[in-house]
């Protein structure tokens, strides 16, 4: 397997570090006009700040080329372009990379340059994709910060997990997310190299990240195994308990929005929370005031513990109009779950790599804690 420390050492020898001692760094999470959560990172010499969309569902880090800012079919927001000639530490590698996502694609060339956290003393030399093509129509950010695991079989990598996450820079091989309350400005935070207890009212419960047996037992996504989901529905004082058996993976992806579940049992899930899936399937728009009347508990049962979800965690207004809410669950023809930011934001999460080297022995963990009332969305 590919070792983080190997690339980190090579990049260190090329350009060196400029920092004092390992630490934990906290930066603010902003929300763009189109709803993307971003954090600031600085690139180049002298450093220029770029607001990058947080995405735990992909591994490359990329920024926009000037040609793409000018002509790519994406948002007309005021986005920052990375201009190689303006950085004295820019180094082209000659490599190209194409990346496909569920919502779009980018392509371009790989370069190496100095990166730091919000102009701090964390400067490292890292590989980044300079995107000269993007079809992300509404993305009003300067690029993307990929935080999934780089695959060993991929010939070209551009992952911060292979550079910034090293024992010379960060206290621990982890990051933590409090997504915020969607205020203006947003009050969310992203922590590099550690986590705190300021935002959570419960201890962090950790769940093992699963490897993909169909892909050489590799780490790819921040995915956990779900045995089943237990439901408790209160209808006019009558409590009904039911279980949906899952026995599959759930990918926790901050770059996605909704909770996507298999078509095989999505109707059962809706019935167990007191809703009619046929209404949703036919294009019905649930009123938010009706969803707020639902009284249920939904508990994911994982091998290492449980995650409890309440109605308020799944309510998202703005489905065509503010009084209508987005469907709580979306269908997929696949077998696994995809859990997006609209659910993740209701927890304080810790993304623990389990070590500095991505190897066959590494066991990453994903931690969840319930938020204090004053921090809940």
UniProtKB/TrEMBL annotation:
<keyword id="KW-0732">Signal</keyword>
<dbReference type="InterPro" id="IPR021109">
    <property type="entry name" value="Peptidase_aspartic_dom_sf"/>
</dbReference>
<dbReference type="InterPro" id="IPR034164">
    <property type="entry name" value="Pepsin-like_dom"/>
</dbReference>
<dbReference type="InterPro" id="IPR001461">
    <property type="entry name" value="Aspartic_peptidase_A1"/>
</dbReference>
<dbReference type="Pfam" id="PF00026">
    <property type="entry name" value="Asp"/>
</dbReference>
<dbReference type="InterPro" id="IPR033121">
    <property type="entry name" value="PEPTIDASE_A1"/>
</dbReference>
<dbReference type="GO" id="GO:0006508">
    <property type="term" value="P:proteolysis"/>
</dbReference>
<feature type="domain" description="Peptidase A1">
    <location>
        <begin position="37"/>
        <end position="369"/>
    </location>
</feature>
<dbReference type="GO" id="GO:0000324">
    <property type="term" value="C:fungal-type vacuole"/>
</dbReference>
<protein>
    <submittedName>
        <fullName>Aspartic peptidase domain-containing protein</fullName>
    </submittedName>
</protein>
<feature type="signal peptide">
    <location>
        <begin position="1"/>
        <end position="18"/>
    </location>
</feature>
<comment type="similarity">
    <text>Belongs to the peptidase A1 family.</text>
</comment>
<dbReference type="GO" id="GO:0004190">
    <property type="term" value="F:aspartic-type endopeptidase activity"/>
</dbReference>
